């Protein structure tokens, strides 16, 4: 069994640079727990091949790997230009319309009636990831006259953002609906929902799903932040997608919102991923900048469940080195005594019940018993493991479950290694299986203590009521 030695997990995006079986295996060895398949790129055949390879690696290494299928969501873009690109100058007039004709230095097609309906004089549009800004002077339902407030080069199909406005558009396009069917057919463990603006977007996705995949809401719109509590409640996990979020809010607000989202997810026992531009310079360089290393470290100190690599592993020149670098940063932070002290100070018990008492006590016991390096949970749905991980016990959590779907969902959770076991019938079965799994994982040595939580009667979900310590 391959067990990663860090608590914080690594999510890696699969792309042309990393999709070969040999490269995917190297990424697993380097520390990846969850693979992201970006449905904005790639064919059905490529997605199928990637999933098959990942599942084969699971069997080879005796581990559970998560697969995140990330839906593209609506892509708001301008049309084409006659010469492919124009240069817009500050102060010039520029028109957006829906004619469908190729653009020039004076106008371009914007094929999105939803944006025109949301426009009003004074509204600012951001183009090309916010590098170009247009102020609306006047508009109708199909034409907008604007003034360029920040100029630059604008080329075919560059993106458009409308900050501060909730657009009358679904988070799911026709393409997303087809991709969702493929993702579920391939056995995705997580579905990533882009362009989340309101809780109803999650309800729509949930109504279309036929599998037990977990929904990951990508927080990339200011309107999602306004409904954060409800969105987190309806999500199985949350991703802080800082790239798009950073276009629509001021740069200085991104770290503030990141911390707010992380804290709220931690309180609600929802896994949280920090994504976008974590080690972006490693797309081309073999080492990151010091600022990037600090960025990853800050997320780890905050106790996030996972950090994610995008272009670094999908299209970069050094995918394995990027994962190893991220792993080394995580490992170094987690060796710092202040890391665990900080997490202990931040965790508050707010949902007092018997199961919470057991999971909190498990962490206390693991810290008190000097040779206890692991907590073993027996769980059917994964809820006990989520609660145990919420309080960041400072030791690894071994989650034993009879369900492969639950085991793969746990691949995203802080400090958790999952093992699929048979249905247990007696207390003696629990003790024997805990000892066997802990020793096989390498997390403990013979004679060391193991902290175990379980439920009596055996086999009843939601009945964690037992805490005890055994020797391996």
- For the record, the count of structural domains works out to 3
Poorly predicted parts? none
Task: Please tell me how large the radius of gyration is.
Answer: 24 Å
Number of strands: 21
Instruction: Indicate the overall shape.
Output: elongated
Provide a compact summary of the structure.
By secondary structure, the protein is of the alpha/beta class. It has helices at residues 21-30, 44-61, 113-118, 174-185, 199-208, 222-226, 228-234, 242-248, 253-267, 290-301, 311-314, 319-334, 337-346, 354-368, 383-390, 404-409, 427-441; strands at residues 9-14, 32-38, 66-70, 85-88, 93-97, 107-109, 124-127, 132-139, 143-150, 152-155, 160-161, 190-193, 214-219, 237-241, 272-275, 306-309, 374-378, 396-401, 416-420, 449-455, 464-471.
How would you describe what is shown here?
- The chain is an alpha/beta fold.
- The protein has three domains: 9-74 and 170-339, Alpha-Beta Barrel (TIM Barrel), CATH 3.20.20.60; 85-161, PK beta-barrel domain-like (M1 Pyruvate Kinase, Domain 3, Beta Barrel); 347-471, Pyruvate Kinase, Chain: A, domain 1, CATH 3.40.1380.20.
- The protein contains 17 helices and 21 strands.
- The chain has helices spanning 21-30, 44-61, 113-118, 174-185, 199-208, 222-226, 228-234, 242-248, 253-267, 290-301, 311-314, 319-334, 337-346, 354-368, 383-390, 404-409, 427-441, and strands at 9-14, 32-38, 66-70, 85-88, 93-97, 107-109, 124-127, 132-139, 143-150, 152-155, 160-161, 190-193, 214-219, 237-241, 272-275, 306-309, 374-378, 396-401, 416-420, 449-455, 464-471.
- Strands 1-2-3-12-13-14-15-16 form an eight-stranded parallel β-barrel, surrounded by seven helices. Strands 6-5-9-8-7-11 form a six-stranded mixed beta sheet, with no helix packed on it.
- α1 crosses α2 (44-61) and α1 (21-30) runs parallel beside α12.
- The longest helix is centred in the N-terminal third of the chain and has 18 residues, at 44-61.
- The protein is elongated.
- The mean pLDDT is 93.
């Amino acid at each position: 069994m391959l067990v990663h030695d860090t608590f914080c997990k690594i999510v890696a995006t699969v792309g042309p640079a990393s999709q070969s079986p040999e490269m995917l295996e190297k990424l697993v060895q380097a520390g990846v727990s969850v693979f992201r398949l970006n449905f904005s790129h790639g064919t059905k055949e490529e997605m199928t091949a990637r999933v098959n390879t990942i599942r084969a690696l699971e069997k080879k290494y005796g581990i559970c790997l998560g697969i995140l299928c990330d839906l593209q969501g609506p892509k708001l873009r301008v049309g084409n230009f006659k010469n492919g690109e124009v240069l817009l100058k500050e102060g010039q007039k520029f028109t957006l319309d829906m004619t469908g004709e190729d653009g020039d230095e004076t106008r371009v097609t914007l094929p999105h009636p939803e944006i025109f309906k949301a426009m009003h004089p004074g509204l600012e549009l951001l183009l090309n990831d916010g590098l170009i800004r247009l102020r609306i002077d006047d508009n109708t339902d199909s034409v907008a006259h604007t003034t360029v407030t920040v100029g630059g080069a604008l080329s075919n199909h560059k993106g458009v953002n409308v900050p501060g406005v909730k657009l009358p558009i679904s988070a799911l396009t026709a393409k997303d609906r087809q991709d969702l069917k493929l993702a579920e057919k391939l056995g995705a463990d997580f579905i990533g929902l882009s362009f989340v603006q309101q809780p109803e977007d999650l309800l729509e996705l949930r109504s279309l799903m036929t599998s037990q995949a977990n929904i990951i809401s990508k927080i990339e719109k200011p309107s999602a932040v306004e409904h954060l509590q409800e969105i987190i409640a309806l999500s199985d996990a949350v991703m802080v997608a800082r790239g798009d979020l950073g276009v629509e809010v001021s740069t200085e607000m991104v770290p503030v919102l990141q911390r707010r989202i992380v804290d709220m997810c931690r309180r609600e026992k929802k896994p949280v991923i920090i994504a976008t531009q974590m080690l972006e310079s490693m797309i081309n360089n073999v080492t990151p900048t010091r600022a990037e290393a600090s960025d990853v470290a800050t997320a780890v100190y905050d106790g996030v469940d996972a950090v994610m690599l995008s272009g670094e592993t999908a299209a970069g020149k050094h995918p394995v080195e990027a994962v190893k670098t991220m792993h080394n940063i995580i490992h170094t932070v987690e060796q710092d005594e202040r890391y665990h002290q900080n997490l202990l100070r931040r965790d508050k018990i707010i949902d007092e019940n018997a199961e919470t008492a057991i999971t909190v006590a498990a962490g206390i016991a693991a810290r008190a018993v000097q040779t206890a390096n692991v907590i073993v949970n027996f769980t059917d749905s994964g809820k006990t493991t989520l609660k145990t991980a919420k309080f960041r016990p400072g030791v690894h959590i071994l989650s034993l479950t009879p369900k492969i779907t639950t085991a793969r969902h746990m691949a995203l959770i802080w400090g958790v290694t999952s093992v699929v076991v048979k249905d247990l019938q007696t207390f003696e079965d629990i003790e024997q299986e805990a000892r066997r799994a802990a020793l096989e994982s390498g997390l403990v040595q013979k004679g060391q203590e193991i902290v175990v939580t379980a439920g009596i009667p055996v086999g009843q979900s939601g009945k964690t009521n037992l805490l005890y310590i055994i020797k391996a």
